[in-house]
Amino acid sequence: MPDDARLIEQARSGDSAAVDELLARHQQQVLRFGRQMCGNEEDAREVLQETLLAAFRKLGHFRGESLLSTWLYQIARSFCARSRRRAVGEPAQTEPLEQPEAASVPSDAEPPDDTAHAREMGIMLHDAILALPEGYRDVIVLRDIEGLSAENAARALGVEVGALKSRLHRARAELRARLAGAAE
User: Fold this and answer.
1) What are 78-125's pLDDT values in tens digits?
2) The total number of structural domains that make up the chain
3) SS3 at position 142
């Protein structure tokens, strides 16, 4: 965001309206990231709350070496990992009847068969991404879904750009294989 730097400075000087605006600007992208990484709305909303609270508390530690969104993704990623660790050993979660947020829902102008097919494809893609190992899921979500540059995604993951590109290549290959297996 163009004037995040101005808002960060205002927030650091105690302007609560600047803090509110700054966090509100990034709320949707953090929630979307949480949905993709956690796989369900409830955990994603919890990750969003924890991320925004942590960002509020630690805004003074943000050095500005990367975009604020990159810093927020790093925070959210750690909370997603905690959420997944808590879920280990718990019974499988039931999926709500509503479609996952990641599913693409075309406009009403499309024929019902096309709409159903697109929804089915969206669900398959969502499930295939969730089935990827964490390191692959992280890179797919940051680069291909959130659209971060290779540099910002590498910063968010704490890896070199070359390592990120290599991991992205392997992640895309595994995702293609999973989707091809699901289509059979």
Assistant:
1) 888 887 777 655 544 444 444 444 444 444 555 566 677 677 777 788
2) 2
3) helix
